[in-house]
Amino acid sequence: MSHFFHLQAQPVDEFNDIRKKLNADSTFDKIDVSAGVYRDHVGEPYTFPSVTEAKSRIIDKHHDYNLCMGIPDFVSGAAKIAVGENAVNEGRVASCQTVGGTGACHLGALFLVQKCGYKNFYLGTPAWPNYTPLIIQSGGSLSTYKYFDSQKRAINFEAVQAALKKAEPKSVFVFQLCCHNPTATDLTMEQWTEVAQIMKERGLIAFFDSAYQGLATGSVEEDGAPVQMFVNEGLEIVVAQSFSKSLGLYGERIGCLHVVTNESTRELVADQLRYIFRAECSSSPAFGARIVSTVLNDNVLRNQWKHNLTEISSRLVETRKYILQKLTDKGTPGNWTSVIGQRGLFWFSGLNEVQSLILMNKMHVYLPKNGRINIAGLNSQNIDRFCDIFHDIVVSKI
């Protein structure tokens, strides 16, 4: 008898399952609007020109181990993007390179739960599904509140406020910085300011997940403004950062965790991060981090990257406008203005699970069952067909 016979199967990973079905589908006109990947005008994963140039510069780099906390130039450059130059220059930021944004979230959760004893986490729903197992496996407990009102297609800010005012001191609130996944609906700066004030008064901890910085407005500075405001208000915060989306380096797994504290405790915090990370990974992957470091620390490449982010953001906005116009012209029943009111890669379309499964199983349009659509998967070759199919599923012609 096996030592492992008692194990039970875990829930299916929806996106892994979708990917398997997509790869097995030989239909020539299938449409992939599932995973959060930015694709170019012909449907291929986009490679930033700055990344191409950076790769050519580091091709002869060695493959030795790096420091446990990461490649210094990468960590410093990433921190300045995530939390701002002032906090970094003032010596208030402890940072550790991680294996992707997921690794940053996990390291942050382990730090807060195991080293700080802050076990109560709050999460607005709907949310990225990986938060729940990540927090639970780190030893935290999870409470949820209704972040998004599906009827009004808007943030339920009253629920956000109520959760903040109910939570015990030292509770951790997980926030997505921008391009909220899956709702594509973010707090306004006025709302962020109120959130910061309540957290400051009640002694709560903000844990930001920054996976899409630069893809909401096209500006890393504007997208990062909420974090900057929290830092300027003197709040100690945790930021999990990823460069998968913002530099198109999905497979390189480039992340960084930043803890903004004060100068007297920064080294102590950094030592805890080092200790945790040493036991998990010892050292993070180097190649992708060197690419990012090269881009961030070269004025020409950094400006080129920022310009490309502006172009990408503009294209996403135009795609949204096109979808709305097509659905309006077709007379698709319902109010579809949410497509232009939301931002980033996603459109939280309002399609239900049954409709989403029909699209995938019958029409070869691949999307998650919550109806979230990656509009970056649409281009001139497939967007008209997508709008036709979307109209048909809404009017129940499929």
Name a few traits of the molecule.
alpha/beta, Aspartate Aminotransferase, domain 1, Aspartate Aminotransferase, domain 2, 2 domains, seven-stranded mixed sheet, two-stranded parallel sheet, 16 helices, about 45% helix
Question: In words, what does this structure look like?
Answer:
By secondary structure, this protein is of the alpha/beta class. The protein is built from 16 helices and 13 strands. The protein has 2 domains: 14-48 and 310-395, Aspartate Aminotransferase, domain 1 (Alpha-Beta Complex); 51-301, 3-Layer(aba) Sandwich (Aspartate Aminotransferase, domain 2), CATH 3.40.640.10. The strands form 4 sheets. Strands 2-10-9-8-7-3-4 form a 7-stranded mixed sheet, sandwiched between helices. Helix 2 runs antiparallel to helix 13, helix 7 packs parallel to helix 8 and helix 13 crosses helix 16 (383-394).
